[in-house]
Specification:
Number of helices: 0
Shape: globular
CATH topology: UDP N-Acetylglucosamine Acyltransferase, domain 1
Number of strands: 24
Strand order of the largest sheet: 1-4-7-10-13-16-19-21-22
Structural class: mainly beta
Number of domains: 1
Oligomer: single chain
Strand content: 25-35%
CATH superfamily: Hexapeptide repeat proteins
Radius of gyration: 17 Å
Order of helices and strands: EEEEEEEEEEEEEEEEEEEEEEEE
Length: 188
C-alpha cells in the first residue's frame, strides 16, 4: 500500500507509527512505533518523535526538535528550531524513571520560539506565544506572550500572533478581545 505522506529517504519511520495524509517528514527524522502524527504536518530535518507522542493536524516542527513521550501537540502548533521538551523532572542516567514521565500539552495554535525549553508537566494555552530562548516552568495562559528564563508574561497576542496593545484589538483581523478573570477572551 502506498503511503499517503512524504518521508525523505533518510527518515526512519518505524512500523506502527501512524502518519496522516499530506504530512511531510524531512531528512534524518526518526518516528517511533506508536507515534501519532496528524495530517498536513511538516517535520523539519532531524526531528525525533517518541512512541507515546500525539501530534494534531497542521503542526509545523522545525529542525532539531525532539518530542519525547507524554508530549501532546494539538492542531496547528508551531515548534521553532531546536526547541526542547523534557519529560522527567529529575533525570539521572543511573535511575530509570520511565514511569514518572510528566505530561506536557501544547494547545491549538500555540507557537514555541527557537531554542525555548518546555519543562514537563506544563500546559501551554491556545494561541500562546513562547519567545525564543524562553524557559517554560509553569502553565501558560491562552494568548499569553511570554519571554525569559523563567518565562514571564509580558503581554497578549491575537489568534494570528499579533502583539496586542491596550485596545486589545488585533490590527490585522479586527478581532476584539477582553480580559475576564485574568484570561484573554475574544468578543463575539
Amino acid at each position: 500500500m502506498k503511503a499517503n505522506f512524504y518521508a525523505h529517504p533518510s527518515a526512519c519511520i518505524d512500523e506502527g507509527a501512524h502518519i496522516g495524509t499530506n504530512t511531510k517528514i524531512w531528512h534524518f527524522c526518526h518516528v517511533m512505533p506508536g507515534a501519532q502524527i496528524g495530517r498536513d504536518c511538516t517535520l523539519g530535518q532531524n526531528v525525533f518523535v517518541g512512541g507515546k507522542v500525539r501530534i494534531g493536524n497542521g503542526v509545523k516542527i522545525q529542525n532539531n526538535v525532539s518530542i519525547y513521550d507524554s508530549v501532546v501537540l494539538e492542531d496547528e502548533v508551531f515548534c521553532g528550531p531546536s526547541c526542547v521538551f523534557t519529560n522527567v523532572k529529575n533525570p539521572r542516567a543511573f535511575i530509570e524513571r520511565k514511569d514518572e514521565y510528566k505530561p506536557t500539552t501544547v494547545k491549538r495554535g500555540a507557537t514555541i520560539g527557537a531554542n525555548a525549553t518546555i519543562i514537563c508537566g506544563t500546559t501551554i494555552g491556545e494561541y500562546a506565544m513562547i519567545g525564543a530562548g524562553a524557559v517554560v516552568t509553569k502553565d501558560i495562559k491562552a494568548h499569553a506572550l511570554v519571554v525569559g528564563a523563567p518565562a514571564m508574561q509580558i503581554g497578549w497576542v491575537s489568534r494570528v500572533g499579533i502583539t496586542l496593545d491596550e485596545s486589545l484589538r488585533c490590527p490585522e483581523t479586527g478581532e476584539q478581545y477582553t480580559v475576564v478573570n485574568g484570561e484573554l477572551v475574544e468578543q463575539k
